[in-house]
Amino acid sequence: MIRHDYSRVDPKRRANIDYKKRQFAKAEFQQQTYEHRLNYYGIPPTAEITLDEFETWAIDRLKVLSELEACSFRNRNPEETAEHMTGILAKYLPLRSNSSRSQNLQDERRKDHYSHFILRLAFSSTEDLRRRFARLETMLFRLRFRNDDLDERKRFVEGLKLDWEEVTEEEKREFKEEMAAASGARKGEVQEWFKVDWERVPELVEQRRVLLKRGMAFVPQREQMSLVVAEFTRRLDDALELTARALPRLDEDDRLAPILAHLSQSFATPDAAYSSSDANIDGLSAPTAASIDTLSQHFPLCMQNLHQALRRDSHLKHYGRLQYSLFLKGIGLSLEECLLFWRRSFKLITDEKFTKEYKYNIRHVYGDVGGDANRRGRGYTPYSCQKILTEPLPGPGQSHGCPYRTFAPDNLLAMLQNTGVNDRDLLKTVREDVGKQRYHVACNRVFDWAHKKEIKKVKDDGSWSAADLDTIVHPNTYFKRGWLLKHLGDGNAGLVGGGDKMEE
Ligand code: SF4
Fold first, then answer.
1. Ligand 1 centre from 440 Cα, in Å?
2. Is residue 183 over pLDDT 60?
3. Do residues 357 and 480 both lie within one domain?
4. Calculated CA dihedral for residues 410, 411, 414, 415, nearest 10 degrees
5. Do 166 and 151 lie in a common domain?
6. pLDDT tens digit sequence for 388-447
7. Where does it sit, as one GO cellular component term (predicted)?
8. What does each C-alpha distance from 88 to 38, 91, 339 come to in angstroms?
9. Is 402 close to ligand 1, i.e. is its CB under 6 Å away?
């Protein structure tokens, strides 16, 4: 679908493109017309676009998906998300309905169609990227579906030809009472029903919003959106698997490979959410190597896990050391104290081995050694939750990452219980959250539970603003906020500069 304005592909190689690719040649310049605003992205685009369009359209879509992800990280509800996204969608990926009579309808839909497929290529390489992409695309689809013109939405759904079966008159008679009870319809209101295989609507089954009969889920009309969205996700998941298998063939195209690699890297790079004010904690005297054990009770689970592993094994592997050193630096531990902390913790090795193998890395983290850029920037920035949550999973013997994601649910709950979380309902909800990959929501839930008395107090007396209690998106914010809340009576002025301020 790329116009051959110029090409870096060796012409000899182009001549040798295999038959499987040539079979698509006929479709190469077909332009599609888009009848509907919404798209299930079932048919790949085949008309030509320039390399420039290829890249800019993908980047624009990426901006939209990143904002959607930020909304879910901040736990925004659908209405807040819709409000936040209105301006962003209008700027980067407008998609007007037929009734708008806009001149640009086809162009907008073309950009939406192409950019979806470009990102599909860029994000199908790993399981993690595929899951993340499918989740965000589903959010985008749901948002648009909700806002679509009612008539157009109806026509779009009819056009999908989803194999929903109608509930027969006989079934309606047979299950009349149960259907009336399950429909939630007001008296006199007529409710239409479909039926589908229950495995296709697991969310609705779990939330008991359908009636289960003879292996089929009877779904009331008002749940249509869930059905359409679930089907969208199912098809996208399948398509991403297929794309992943076809990816190696793309390596032949050295115009696209660098662009796709760049796109997936920018998707993987999490936003910086660390504020240097997180290191200035009112009332907390400068942390030392000796005070970390005591302070660790206020650490988030990711850092408690590293601390416990370090105490248990007197050692941590590279990524664990990096994640933990950055966090400690972020709470205000000086380089000297940090070196002392690691030296004392690695009890089983000699001074010589420590100096030779570990010291340099710690100094590097602090920007004490290394290239000019590292020194000028004073080393690395403490990792945000998003960074920790999107890194490759730890291997055997490694302890880095976020336990809400890396631990099996039973082990996670056991660890939480060890740290004093003993509320059964909370633990059950945490299990549900992690089952839906809402790791970060689970972590915030645990924080709110562990500090509920203090949070109530600062809310009631108005000493903290709503922003001070916004969703935590950084382990250092978790520590700072937790420490301050547990030391409210110690004369702290409040959460000075303590929101989740962003700093590049
Ligand atoms: Fe740490 Fe963030 Fe995971 Fe909480 S959600 S455990 S702060 S990485």
1. 6
2. yes
3. yes
4. -150
5. no
6. 987 778 999 999 999 999 999 999 999 999 999 999 999 999 999 998 888 888 999 999
7. alpha DNA polymerase:primase complex
8. 18, 5, 45
9. yes
Say whether both 295 and 400 belong to one domain: yes
Least confident of 72-86, 94-108, 340-354, 410-424: 72-86
Q: Is 388 touching ligand 1 by the criterion CB < 6 Å?
A: yes
Cβ neighbours of residue 485 closer than 8 Å, sequence gap 6 or more: 451, 454, 455, 458
Average of per-residue pLDDT across 278-292: 87
- Gap from CA of 379 to ligand 1 centroid (Å): 22
Ligand 1 pocket test: pick from 73, 74, 301, 384 the residue with the most ligand atoms within 8 Å of its Cβ: 301
SS3 category, 49: strand
Residue 39, pLDDT > 50, answer: yes
- pLDDT given for residue 12 in this prediction: 44
Q: Give the C-alpha distances (Å, rounded to integers) separating 414 from 252, 388, 409, 411, 418.
A: 49, 21, 9, 5, 6
Mean pLDDT computed over 352-372: 89
Question: For residue 46, which of 108, 3, 9 has the smallest C-alpha distance?
Answer: 3
Residue 393 makes CB contacts below 8 A (sequence gap 6+) with 401, 405, 406
Q: Which residues pair with 194 in a beta bridge?
A: 166, 219
338 is in an annotated binding site: no
Q: Is 402 annotated as a binding residue?
A: yes
| Backbone phi and psi for residue 229, each to the nearest 5 degrees, phi listed first | -70, -40
Residues in CB range of 499: below 8 A, 6 or more apart: 275, 467, 468, 470
> Are 389 and 372 contained in the same domain?
yes
The model carries a pTM of 0.58
Nearest atom, ligand 1, residue 303 CA: 1
User: Is 169 found in the same domain as 115?
Assistant: no
Structure tokens at 80: 């807040």
Highest mean pLDDT pick, 48-57, 103-112, 275-284, 289-298: 289-298
Distance 221 CA to ligand 1 centre (A): 39
Q: What is the DSSP letter of 273?
A: -
pLDDT of 314: 96
For residue range 122-178, what is the model confidence (pLDDT) as tens digits?
888 888 788 889 999 999 999 999 988 888 888 898 888 887 888 888 888 888 888
Query: Which position has the higher pLDDT, 250 or 499?
Result: 250
| 52 and 170, same domain (yes or no) | no
| Cα-based distances in Å from 190 to 184, 186, 194 | 11, 9, 14
Domain check: are 259 and 339 in the same one? no
Q: Rounded to the nearest whole angstrom, what is the distance from the C-alpha of residue 240 to the centroid of ligand 1? A: 28
The three state secondary structure string of 150-185 is HHHHHHHHHHHCCCCEECCHHHHHHCHHHHHHHHCC
Residue 421 structure tokens: 């979380």
Counting from 1 in the atom list of ligand 1, the atom nearest the Cα of 473 is 2
Q: Whole domain around residue 250: which residue ranges?
A: 11-159+231-266
